[in-house]
Amino acid sequence: MLSDNAAVISVRNLIIAFGSNAVLRGVDFDLKPGENLVVLGKSGSGKSVLIKIIVGLLRPDAGTVQVLGQDVLTLTARELDAIRLKIGFSFQNSALYDSMTVRENLEFPLVRHIRNLSRAEIDRTVEEALDDVGLKQAINQMPSELSGGQRKRIGIARTLMLKPAIMLYDEPTAGLDPITCTEINALINDVQERFKAAAIVITHDLTCAKTVGNRVAMLFDGRFQRIGPFEEVFAADDELVKQFYDYNFTT
Amino acid sequence: MDTNTTNPPGPVTTRRLDRIGLNLYDIAQFVGRFFAEVFLPPYEGREILRQCYEIGVRSLPLISLTGFITGIVFTNQSRPSLAEFGATSWLPSLIAVAFVRALAPLLTALIAAGRVGSNIGAELGSMRVTEQIDAMEVSATNPFKFLVISRILATTLMIPTLMVYTVFIGLLGAFINVNQNEATSFSAFMNEVFGAITFLDVFSSLIKSFVFGFTIGAVGCFKGYHAEKGTEGVGKAATAGVVTSMFMVFIEELLALQIVNAIR
To answer: What is the distance between the alpha carbons of residues B186 and A96, in angstroms, rounded to a whole number?
Structure first.
């Protein structure tokens, strides 16, 4: 087993409440290098809040969050930005900049953070990234002209432009048809294999969890109730886990 | 007779006052952050230029039309009053003073508040609710610098520029009307115009326009940047961007009038 020092993300006793609503009540886990950890839970259980804390978009009430050995809660803005460059965050609604074309969306992190890149190098990198997600033909389209699945893939491509060490996926298959879900799951596995990036995948889709997760964590009542390989977690005789399984696979 | 104003403030009044107070505090913090970050690198030169184009150049057709028509209409409406005293030769001076001192800055600011303020409020509001601002932040780009500072700088620079343009286009409209009715030549018209306006008129209008531009940009950005979740929030941000900035422009105009009168 990997020690805490080797973990790319290490979260301890994470607590956050919004008003009187205690969302996370003491989350603990380590993300090992190169693994995909799937976080499952009901809507509103705090899954997205968890990854937003990890990337510094939200501040918890208590607890510690170590990313690549640094406590993100004590970093200066500049240090936090340096950590963020190593994290790719794929948003639930893709969050593509809708005033920019696909090309400009993909160029955005590149031209801002890598200096002295020639026009040819930028074009080549953008085309490669689009090729990776199978959407080279969409290079000059606006985000509004793309389907939900295409937007998701472009969103993932944009996060990969800076070759992140960690990927955070927020509901990557939400609102997509089964075929596109399969494509997105394959893309997540492909990213893990090619970039050797560790990832946290937030979902309530068990097919996605089973396909992409090396480990699965069940977030319930503000805590990880179960964590381990998919088969192990869902073998447990637990009413909550059974409900989740039954909903996804027997209905 | 008892009126509500004589009653001690009840819970609803207190809540409203609290909300206004908090809102003012938030706006002050927002403006404070603008001044704290505006001189620090990185400088978003390309984005500022893009915004100057969007705000300045794209407003030209509307500004041209309204400025020109206002020039014609104002001249036409002023003529009968001056004609009663046989003073229609004062029309160029009257129009020049009216345009430079009040009409052009106000007209430009109100049109910009309607077109630019709502646009900024809706654009940033939409970016907020669709997590584009968060996406920018997690990609290590300061969204406040990229989106807010660039827009506020662009409105602050472009509104005075548009104001100067409005003066000329309004005077052009006025000249056409005066030329048709009084057969005044262009050089005679311009002589009258430049004889009537002073350095203080031009200087105070420019300063006023800088303040109007800053206000329109800051209010639009503030409302959009802090839009609440959902499409309703985007609509509210756009409306609030227009209404609040127009209200602020009138208050500032009133204050500027008092200051300039005291100097004059």
So the answer is: 54
pLDDT in tens, B23-81: 888 989 999 999 999 999 888 899 999 999 999 999 999 999 999 999 999 999 999 99
Q: What is the per-residue pLDDT across A82-95, written as a single tens digit (0 to 9) for each?
A: 999 999 999 999 99
Q: Rounded CA gap, A205 and A199, in Å?
A: 16
Touching check for B258 and chain A: CB below 8 Å? no
Residue-averaged pLDDT of chain A: 91
The residue among B95, B62, B99 whose CA lies nearest residue B178 is B95
Tokens standing for A136?
Answer: 């080279």
Q: Which amino acid is residue A230, in one-letter code?
A: F
**Which one has a higher pLDDT value, B168 or A237?**
B168
pLDDT by residue (tens digit) across B147-193? Answer: 999 999 999 999 999 999 999 999 999 999 999 999 899 999 999 99
Find, in chain B, the residue whose alpha carbon is nearest to that of A107: B139
In the structure, what pLDDT confidence band is assigned to residue A4 with cuts at 50, 70 and 90? very low
What pLDDT band is residue B3 in, cutting at 50, 70 and 90?
Answer: very low
d(CA A24, CA A219): 9
Of residues A81, A91, A95, nearest to B140 (C-beta): A81
Q: Do A57 and B138 touch (CB under 8 A)?
A: yes
CA distance A87 to chain B (A): 8
**pLDDT exceeds cutoff 50 at B4:** no
Cβ-nearest to B138 among A87, A96, A99: A87
Structure tokens at A148: 């939900």
- pLDDT score, position A234: 84
- The DSSP code sequence of chain B is ---GGGSPP-HHHHHHHHHHHHHHHHHHHHHHHHHHHTTSSPP-HHHHHHHHHHHTGGGHHHHHHHHHHHHHHHHHHHHHHHHHTT-GGGHHHHHHHHIIIIIHHHHHHHHHIIIIIHHHHHHHHHHHHTTHHHHHHHTT--HIIIIIIHHHHHHHHHHHHHHHHHHHHHHHHHHHHHHHHH---HHHHHHHHHHH--HHHHHHHHHHHHHHHHHHHHHHHHHHHTPPSSHHHHHHHHHHHHHHHHHHHHHHHHHHHHHHHHH-
